[in-house]
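Pipeline run #58 for the internal structure catalog. This entry was flagged by the ingest filter as a single-chain record with no existing model, so it goes straight to prediction. Upstream metadata was stripped on purpose; only the residue string is passed forward. Reviewer on rotation: M.T. Logging verbosity set to normal.
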Amino acid sequence: MSFISGETLAEHASRDSCWIIVHSKVYDVTDFLDEHPGGSKIILKYAGKDATEAYEPIHPPNAITDNLPIEKHIGAIDPSTIVKAIKEVTEEDKRRQALMDARPPLDEILNLHDFEAVAKAVLPPKAWAYYSSASDDEITIRENRAAFQRVWFRPRILRDVTSVDWSTTILGCKSSLPIYISATALGKLGHPDGELNLTRAAAKHGVIQMIPTLASCSFDEIVDAATPGQPLFLQLYVNRDREITKKYVQHAEKRGVKALFITVDAPQLGRREKDMRMKFVDDGAGAKVQENQKDVKKDQGVARAISSFIDPSLSWKDIPWFRSITNMHIILKGVATPEDAILAYEAGCQGIVLSNHGGRQLDTSRSGLENLVDIVAALKTKGPWPNPNFAVFVDGGVRRASDVLKAIALGASAVGVGRGFLYAFSSYGQEGVERAIEILRDEFEMNMRLLGARSISEIVPEMVDASALRSHAGLTPTDNLYNTTYQPLSLAAFKNKL
């Protein structure tokens, strides 16, 4: 690859010839301007310049190389010829830095709600909007949390709980907790090290991380940061180009990933209005979100801007193909009904995740916890329960170890936690994730003792009362901490011209 001088780069700083630098490499993006899901203006702002700082937080690292033909890869920039731009420090930057300096000490963070409150204060508004947003009226995201408050414990007494053990095995992998770190996209929006915060903390504490397809860090960068033998799972958005998906999956298996979690509830991403109102994309955005769709609006937010490759044609007929290309455990992430749980079982999958995508897809869909009751009942008709060959996971709304114990009592194999860890590293980096794990560990110890369960196997259905789980109105206790951090939706704002 030839070296490009800064002088040559500067000659290509217009719509007619637009070159940019990303990660010290020069790319010709002229023909891509009008196809960019985020619009042309944001690229033109960096025409003839280094766009890495703007590119990195909101794009998977391989986005530019995957979307540009090889002939558009011009060469490496000659670093000695580049004049570093001086970044303007805005009043908003100063305000956020002051808040970072004033964060509570980590030892004063007592629960996962605390991390969320800190993240809400210190994250840039667009990052907070992307992380916290959910679809439509955001009823399901709130219901995910509320459902846990409608399940009540029935503790047993006078059991020797001197020693309690909350470790477990998840898909054949040992875990120090009955949870795994669920996939969340674009970690560098919250912290420069992105998902590596999770990888390093998970290694230290024996927790399993699920790598997201849309991570800010590359897949190999994350795997390289793991310790030898550290168990990793992979979340997959299926590409319309199956050859790309095949190479990705098989590469993951070669790198030692233990399980493939195929997202099945996102043939099109939901309308996440907090994200949309922030206009991560500019007024020039107009690319198609999915194949054969036209007239996509220009204000769809970062979620739509990064997801144009996802295949809406994914169907049950593709499961045998996945089984033919990998020996990894195959888990379907996003199952919501007994009917589909049975189909997944019959299709030879090794498990399912009862998930509504953190409330980010179909609004007013039921919580994974509520679906768990019906789905476990249906799976019991297919053979012995628990079934060692078919796992049932739940995610969405988890903020306490007590939430996890309720799900396990109702039949879950383990529980995924996404936003809780995301907010932890957005607030405090790797140390935040480690503190979050320690908090959950302490909560498991206390709750298991008080519940009268000495191991995960002793957490049984008789230890909970889920009779109110289906009562969606009027019977849910108020969750004051969650309500304090939840940011209600806003309506369209008038222009400030009055």
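catalog note: The two ends are 56 Å apart (CA to CA).
catalog note: DSSP finds 19 helices and 16 strands in the chain.
status: ready for reviewer M.T.
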